[in-house]
Every structure is written in C-alpha cells, then in structure tokens.
Amino acid sequence: MKRVDILTTNDCNKRCEGCYAALNKKAMSSDIALSIVDWIIQSEDKVQIHFLGGETLLNVEPVYQILDALGERCYKNLLYTNGDSLTYDILKSLKDRKVKIVLNPTYDSLSTVKDKISLVKEVCGGASLSVALTAYNMSRLPELVRLAIKHNIHIRMNRLYEGGSDKSYLDEYKQQMVRALGLLLRAVPMWPNYIVDCIYVTWIGSENPYLCGKDIVTIDVDGTIRSCIADKTSRIGSIFTENNFKYPQRHDASNYEECQSCKWLLWCQGGCPYTSKVITGLYGITKTPFCSAYKAIFPILFELTRRWMVHEVQ
User: Fold this and answer.
1) What does the pLDDT read at residue 206?
2) Which strands make up the sheet holding 154-158, listed edge to edge?
3) Residue 61 C-beta-side C-alpha neighbours within 13 Å
4) Who contacts 99 (Cβ-Cβ below 8 Å, separation ≥6)?
5) Is the pLDDT of residue 45 over 80?
6) Closest CA to 140 of 170, 169, 179
7) Cα 129 to Cα 80: distance, rounded to the nearest angstrom
8) Please, what are the domains in the chain?
9) Cα–Cα distance between 277 and 99 in angstroms, integer?
10) pLDDT band for position 100 (50/70/90)?
11) Which of 9, 182, 183, 254 is in Cβ range 3.0-4.6 Å of 59 for a Cys bridge?
C-alpha cells in the first residue's frame, strides 16, 4: 500500500454541493486511531497519509496520534480542510508533524479564502487549494486561479463525480478549465501534477501511474477499509481482520478499445473509475464522460508541464 486516506470524522460544519462525505456525527476514536497505527506497521514500511473528513479539524486528535506513533514511516502527510477551524496553534502542531495543508474554498468569499491562505502560509510556509468545481466555484474559477497565482500556491481543480451525467456541466467544465489553464500559462510555471483532478502529467514511465484500484485505500472512522473514498459501497476489508484486498475498480483503460489509439492514454487511463460508475452503476463499463474535455485540456496541460520543467532547470 502506497497511500492511505484516513477519515477522522464524518461531521462537517458545511453542506456543500457535490460532497461525497457521509455527513453524520460519527468520529474516529483514540482506540481506532491506534489500531490504524498497528495495521499500517504490520502492512507497510513507509506510506503516504491523507487526512480527510467531513471536516478533518472537527476531530484533529487522531491526526496527532497516528503521526506521532508512526513517525518516519509517513513520508508525505496531507490534511484537507475548509479552514474554518484553523488556528495558529493547530497549524503549528501540524507543521511540527510535517503535515501539508490543502484548503477547500467551499463557498467562502474570495477575501475569506485569501485570509485563510495567508494564515497557513504565515505559519507553515506554504499551502495549496483544492477546488471542488461546483456551479458556484466554476463561475469564479478564474478568480480562484488568480488568487493561487498571486500567493504562489498550487491549485487543484476537481470535477464533480456526478457532473459526468450532466451535459451542461460537461460543457461548462471544458470551457472553464481551458480558460483556467490559459491563465496558468501566463504565470510563473506551477507544478503541473494534480492541477486537473488526479492527473499525473509528468509521468514518463510506460506503466499505468495511478494508485486507484491497486495501492490506495480509504479507512473510515470505524476502521472499515474501502477502495474508493467517494464510493460508500466499496468496502473491501477492515483494520481488524486479515486482508487480501480485491478491488472492484481500477484506474485503467486497457478494457476500453476506443482509448487505445488516444495520444493521452498513458496519463488519462480512461479517467476516474467512480465517475463512470455514477453513470452506469458498475465499474469498468465505459471510459470517463470527461473525455472530450480532457482532449481539450491535455495539450495546454502539457505545455504548462514543458514550461515548468524548463523553469525548474534554470
């Protein structure tokens, strides 16, 4: 296992369009957190950990417990938050544990998003934005991109899973993403991976670069293990039982004949499996409904990658 996503709570102080969280009052206990530590120690040497919710900071103690116990076994730690509960002390505690903060602007005003970015950068030295492309955030995406450029932070733009079943959403997504990437092309080159969803655009190997369906799991607040953070039906095990994981999905386009001649195959791999499942009800039936948008986006994304690589060697 290369990455573990841990949900510290299902609770959240907001109710955002397109959110896939369970949104109830269940929260991870200290006992579950310590059991996760035991499970990771038995399963892996080193691992990436992403902490999410709900709103992660509504139950932040499991984050401290897990990281303190695992120490150097965690080589990359991210915490996703809407930022409403951020304080200097919390940020200092997270920085001391080498946690990178990923802010979700939700439906905050631009001035509020700016204030949160400034606070995180002041304490931690850096931050990043992860924007769920709701109708509201789609309408102000250029402003959010300019905000990221101004503050020299990474921005990730995430399509809604259910957006693939809505033609008007697909059309708007394509238009706004092309515009947003155009803005990034005119700025100091940004690290290009994960700017668009989970796309790993700097990958130069010959094999599928994606962890989905082979090297990533989600652990719920009760210790249940799922193969997909968004798919509540994707239970594949538990931290309390011996697991021989059988993933129902794979981020892999090998079954899609129409994808094999596509020049973007290596980096797209048919798109997010769950996005397609939302439409068909099953995994592995069809490629991503965002195919047309990605074909418009990839040329710009690769030009951004080229410029970033040139910038890095200068």
Assistant:
1) 83
2) 154-158, 128-132, 99-103, 74-81, 47-52, 3-7, 216-219, 224-226, 235-238
3) 8
4) 51, 63, 67, 77, 78, 79
5) no
6) 179
7) 9
8) 3-313 (3.20.20.70)
9) 32
10) very high
11) 9
Q: Where are the beta strands (DSSP E) in the chain?
A: 3-7, 47-52, 74-81, 99-103, 128-132, 154-158, 216-219, 224-226, 235-238
Structure tokens at 229: 């953070």
Average pLDDT, the chain: 95
**At 236, is the secondary structure helix, strand, or coil?**
strand
Q: Can you give the pTM of this predicted structure? A: 0.95
Q: Which helix (H) or strand (E) holds 67?
A: helix 61-70
- Token pair belonging to 40: 């990771």
What was the pLDDT predicted at 242? Answer: 77
Whether 2 contacts 32, CB under 8 Å = no
Radius of gyration of the chain (CA): 19
Q: Which of 128, 130, 124, 2 is nearest to 75 (CA)?
A: 2
| Interacting residues of 295 by C-beta distance below 8 A, sequence separation 6+ | 262, 264
Query: Amino acid identity, residue 176?
Result: Q
Q: Is the backbone of residue 12 left (phi > 0), alpha (psi -120 to 50) or beta?
A: beta
Residue type, 231: D
Average pLDDT estimate for 44-68: 95
Helices (H) and strands (E) in the chain, counts: 10, 9
The predicted structure's pLDDT at residue 17: 87
As a whole number of angstroms, the distance between CA 123 and CA 119 comes to: 6
Torsion of CA 89, 6, 252, 201, to 10 degrees: 10
- pLDDT (0 to 100) of residue 207: 86
Tokens of 183: 């803005």
